Amino acid sequence: MVRNLRLLAAPCILALCGCQTPLHTHELESRNQSLQQQLDVTQNKIHTLESERHQLQKALNESNRVRKIIGKEKSSRFNESTLLRSQVRRFLQAQIDGYKSFLVNNNLLDYVGGELLKRKQYDNRSIMLVDLKNEIPRSGVLTGVGAWLVKPTHMTVKVLRKIDDKLVVVWESRNLNIPKTGLIKTRFHVSVGVEKGDVLGYYFPEAAMVAFDKGTGDTRYLTRNLRPGSSIRPSSLKGEDQQRAYSLGVYGLLQ
């Protein structure tokens, strides 16, 4: 009996399977069509984006081209402007130097220091001089130095300022190489502003070949250099009793 039932059920199962197969195929075809539509839409978007990217790249290339041209134009104008400013500065500096030399050589500047004349004595050693007698009488600008030398020498000029009970070095010139003898006048590389009451110092790293006399001045000395920023009390300077007067001084424009 059971065997007969199995034989009868087999055709029914086959019939059911045959009915389901067309439905499954139709579903797959529908999905394929949907996927194909999505693929087409995506490809269209890709083409659109690629076209936009191409347009943006063209715009970027054009922008870079224009930027390079503008950069070259700016660079050219900058170079021309820099060259012009440089030429103007050199011209003005030459004019200023000429005016300074004219004022110094024709004794038209203010002078502060000892009389520039031939004297009997000189220091044959390295020395730092501080002129306590000839203080700066008015504020202004110093442009050069004058001296009476018995031999060529090197020197630096210093400005000392009174702070409390000390003299502080607030400025020094570059090393001045003076190859001449007798009365000399030379300009500083850079002018310096001074105040009323400032004191002048002169350092000779080699033998000081500037002439001096005793009894008429108050130039004191040290056997070491005073660097900018260093300070010293006037009482620490040597030579108070000698009252030295040197043929040394500075030129400038004072108020």
Q: What does this 3D model show about the protein?
A:
- The chain has 255 residues and is of the alpha+beta class.
- It folds into two domains: 108 residues; 145 residues, Jelly Rolls (Sandwich), CATH 2.60.120.
- Helix content is 41%, strand content 33%.
- Strands 2, 3, 5, 6, 7, 9, 10, 11 and 12 form a nine-stranded antiparallel sheet that branches.
- The longest helix is centred in the first third of the chain and has 104 residues.
- The protein is elongated.
- The N and C termini lie far apart (142 Å).
- The N terminus is likely disordered.
Topology record:
Layout: H1 2-105, E1 110-113, E2 121-122, E3 127-131, E4 140-149, E5 153-163, E6 166-172, E7 176-178, E8 182-194, E9 199-204, E10 211-222, E11 231-232, E12 244-246, E13 248-254
Antiparallel strand pairs: 1-13, 2-10, 3-9, 3-10, 4-8, 4-13, 5-6, 5-7, 5-9, 6-11, 10-12
Please describe the structure with a list of short key phrases separated by commas or semicolons:
255 residues, alpha+beta, Jelly Rolls, nine-stranded antiparallel sheet, four-stranded antiparallel sheet, 41% helix, elongated
